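Quick one:
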Amino acid sequence: MMITARGLADVAPPRHIAFIADGNRRWAKAHNATVAEGFSQGAAAVHHVLEQCRALGVEVATVHLMSDRNFERDPAEVAILAKVIADLVDTAAAASTGPVRILSSGPIMPARAPQFLKDVIARAERDTADRAGAGMAVCFGIGYDGQADIAQAVHQAMVVPPRTPLGAPTVDQYLSTAGLPNPDLIVRTSGERRLSGFLLWQAADATLHFDDRLWPDYDAAALTEALTVHAAQTRAFGR
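Output:
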């Protein structure tokens, strides 16, 4: 399917779009709402964005929900966020026609993550594993850190037989995104102009689009804007 919104007809969509869903707490403060309400509105925005990406024919949509360092926040807030994320993952797995994968710094999740969240994640990945190639793959960054992702991939590449010369293709196959195309477009909301450790290796050739909207306000118009910016880029890949 081609992009059809706002003059983008006949432009093929990116294969992989990744989002850093930032600004939920600031949205809550701006709307005199609780942090829980901010996270819930952010989860609703995730569902809407995934639906839009699926309608466009995107192969992979990744949403970074929570970094490894976010687990160091106030325990009460972490508990609220973990519950919202668990519900989000559960619902997304039920609605997805493709596989759901979790990008994390640990084998499943950091040790300090609540057990109920680990259980939901394990179930979502298990129940959707046979959908590869059947629909858009959905990836969630939960407890993810790009430096740790690279470090574990290099370690695996060096110790797992058969040992081959260490290079980009070798490292790629041990990253948390192994088997998926690298992101073509990375969007970060809330006005922050940095990746904060998100997909550091995989972002080498990605278009970076920074949006001042807070994540709960991210909508179809915002996605169209990002796609327009990406479509205007000339990606020569060094050639």
